[in-house]
Amino acid sequence: YKFLYMTSILLSDSTGYQWVSFFEKESEILFGCPPEQFPYGKSKDDEDKAYQKIMSISGQEKMFLIRVKSNRYNNHDRLQFTCIGIEAIDARLMCRLYLEDI
Questions:
Q1: pLDDT 10s digit of each residue in the chain, 102 long?
Q2: DSSP assignment of 60-83, as one string?
Q3: 10 Å Cβ neighbour count for 26?
Q4: What whole-number distance in Å separates Cα of residue 95 and Cα of residue 100?
Q5: Which of 89, 79, 86, 90 is CA-nearest to residue 24?
Q6: Closest Cα to residue 54, out of 37, 36, 38, 34?
Q7: Is residue 83 within 8 Å of residue 21, measured between CB atoms?
């Protein structure tokens, strides 16, 4: 068998928040390790390490490329949000762009 990531994460910004699904590649970029190295809770120590790994990504600013898909189920429309790309924010570049706008 092979371990795979499939995570659902609540993303937020100044406009609101949204649950987004992250699959293999994007989750690996987000957590910074392949799924085989992620502590998956065999012991109390693994649970603590997993919690620390999850909390380490909380509050980080990143740019996400999100795909939105509309599904209809039982006469209800539902939007699914899936991350298809992640980039770190370059603070110097962003400041330079903001200064150029002023």
A1: 888 899 999 999 889 999 999 999 999 999 888 888 887 767 778 888 888 888 888 888 889 999 999 999 888 899 999 999 999 888 888 899 899 988
A2: --EEEEEEEEEEEETTEEEEEEEE
A3: 21
A4: 9
A5: 86
A6: 38
A7: yes
> CA of 45: how far to CAs of 21, 42, 50, in Å?
27, 8, 9
Q: In what order do the strands lie in the sheet with 76-88?
A: 7-13, 16-22, 76-88, 62-73
This prediction's pTM: 0.75
| Dihedrals phi, psi of 100, to nearest 5 degrees | -65, -35
For each of the domains in the chain, give its residue range(s) and CATH number, in order of start. 7-101 (2.40.50.140)
Give the single-character DSSP code of 54: H
